[in-house]
């Protein structure tokens, strides 16, 4: 009898593969963001700016809030080893003031963004879910605020508050009061689209209450457009704060703001351009960083762009 070789069929050697977890919008978005150069660059830049705002003393040995560090005899001196960005009209180190000025811009941007997201998102969730008179009432109120130009309205609010009472809180209030209707509209539209999905109807048929349906089923699937808008709003609010400070109704001395530094240096720009150029450069970089983040997040969360 001849020796016969018994070979196993491919099916016998193949081990059962693990069932892959179904992909979701958030997992796909996170994968896209991790491989997006625009997101990585914008996130690194934004993280650096946040660290500068939180720990300015790590980046500057000069305390910008200490008047004794200013030397009027060295006013408007150019760039040198002791003053990397030159000195301003009062002989203060421009570099240290630029570093310490990041705190105001970042705080205003983050707090105003959180305020508008929470208020607009909550009201938009209610308007889209309940509809009828709730939707009509909230939508009409939002339209009233939409009719007011943002910068003009903020100027009016801050003028009423007065320069003596102006500060971070008043600037955040002025920006937030006029910006929440945009978030409301976006959240409302997303909720109206989501609440007609089969899984929401199934949850309602199983006896889930309105709060549970909104929190567990609608909100996680409707929040993506709001995240995109709020990420971009960070840069918008930072630029708006600088504009209001430049116009003299926002942050006031002795606080430090990039917009205030630009306003103080504009009349002597030809004589000493550095005190104006460097705050403007940092302001532009900051706005660019958050706009890049917003663009990357939008590309990752928008299914139409896939």
From TrEMBL:
It is a multi-pass membrane protein. One of its GO terms (biological process) is transmembrane transport. InterPro entries: BP-dependent_transpt_permease, MetI-like, MetI-like_sf, OppC_N. Residues 102-294 form the ABC transmembrane type-1 domain. Its main location: membrane. Keywords: Cell membrane, Membrane, Transmembrane, Transmembrane helix, Transport. SUPFAM superfamilies: MetI-like. The chain crosses the membrane at residues 38-59, 104-129, 141-161, 167-187, 222-251, 276-297. One of its GO terms (cellular component) is plasma membrane. It is found in: Cell membrane. Belongs to the binding-protein-dependent transport system permease family. This is Peptide ABC transporter permease. It comes from Acrocarpospora corrugata.
């Amino acid at each position: 009898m001849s020796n016969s070789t018994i070979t196993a069929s491919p099916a016998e050697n193949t081990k059962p593969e693990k069932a892959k977890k179904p992909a979701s919008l958030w997992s796909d978005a996170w994968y896209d963001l991790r491989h997006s150069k625009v997101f990585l660059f914008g996130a690194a830049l934004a993280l650096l700016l946040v660290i500068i705002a939180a720990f300015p003393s790590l980046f500057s040995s000069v305390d910008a809030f200490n008047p004794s560090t200013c030397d009027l005899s060295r006013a408007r001196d150019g760039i040198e080893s002791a003053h990397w960005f030159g000195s301003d009209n009062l002989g203060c180190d421009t570099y240290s003031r630029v570093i310490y000025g990041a705190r105001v811009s970042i705080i205003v941007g983050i707090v105003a963004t959180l305020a508008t997201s929470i208020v607009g998102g909550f009201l938009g969730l209610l308007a889209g879910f309940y509809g009828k008179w709730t939707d009509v009432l909230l939508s009409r109120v939002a339209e009233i605020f939409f009719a007011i130009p943002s910068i003009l309205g903020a100027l009016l609010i801050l003028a009423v508050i007065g320069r003596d009472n102006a500060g971070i809180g008043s600037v955040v209030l002025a920006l937030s009061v006029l910006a929440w209707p945009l978030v409301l509209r976006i959240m409302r539209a997303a909720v109206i689209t989501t609440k007609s999905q089969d899984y929401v109807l199934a949850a309602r048929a199983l006896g889930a209450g309105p709060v549970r349906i909104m929190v567990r089923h609608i909100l996680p699937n409707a929040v993506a457009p709001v995240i995109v808008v709020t990420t971009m709003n960070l840069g918008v609010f930072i630029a708006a704060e600088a504009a209001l400070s430049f116009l003299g109704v926002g942050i006031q001395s002795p606080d430090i703001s990039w917009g205030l530094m630009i306003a103080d240096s504009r009349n002597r720009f030809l004589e000493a351009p550095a005190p104006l150029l460097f705050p403007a450069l940092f302001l532009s970089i900051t706005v660019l960083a958050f706009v890049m983040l917003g663009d990357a997040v939008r590309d990752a969360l928008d299914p139409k762009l896939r």
